[in-house]
Amino acid sequence: MSLPPTNSIEMPILQELVATGGADEIRFLYERLAGYFPQIEDREVSAIKLGANVGWRKTVQKAGRNLEEKGFIKRNRGAWKITEKGKATVTEESSSYTLTAAVLSPATHLNIQELLVEIGSFLGFAAQTEYEYYDVVWRETPKSLRLSHIFEVQSKGNIDSAFAKLKRAYQSQRTKPFLVVSSEKDLKRAHQSLAREFQDIETAVTILTFVQIQLVHRNLQAICDILPKLLES
Fold first, then answer.
1. What is residue 101's predicted lDDT score, i.e. its pLDDT?
2. Are strands 126-131 and 79-82 parallel, antiparallel or unpaired?
3. Complete DSSP assignment for 191-219
4. Sheet holding 23-25, edge to edge
5. 109-231 has which CATH code?
6. The pLDDT of residue 95
7. In the chain, which stretches have pLDDT less than 70?
8. Domain ranges, ordered by start, for the chain
């Protein structure tokens, strides 16, 4: 196995900790971090999942020690927690550090719809695709008439049309509206359109990218077994 340089693992560690709310156990990070390095072969990833790849574990641990020495994380046995200094570093790097198809598989409109349904289910919502003319909807319960969250997925097409649908749902039920776009270019275009044509819902709409949805799904999937317990009232 050709292990990546230790310093190349440091930023992914910080990003993973931010994505999981600031802290995580190292045993969960080993597998997720492997996804950042396409040079790691499938058989080696399988070994990592089984906890059988000692070299990878040592490399990640060394990266963790370096981050702790820099003041970016704190380690308490198997629990790693990002510091404010570490969070600031992630923010500074976010404009230049971009997840690409080498890290996450290319996504389609249908794939993102399916991920949104699974994310909703992880979080306890009744989720479905293609409800009336919306791409994805979440309800508090299967019998609830109110739509809690609405997602329009844009891989191509008219962004203004998607905003019009979201505006209608927000104004009628105060539904939480989300637009999910396929690229950073579309993200910029969507923000410009929102500010120019849909100022009345500008503060209500959340715009996300396909990559962000993939990351949310991946991280929630890693804790889906314990998530229901955490969300119990």
1. 38
2. unpaired
3. HHHHHHH-GGGTTT-EEEEHHHHHHHHHH
4. 23-25, 79-82, 73-76
5. 3.40.1350
6. 47
7. 1-2, 38, 93-106, 232-233
8. 6-93, 109-231
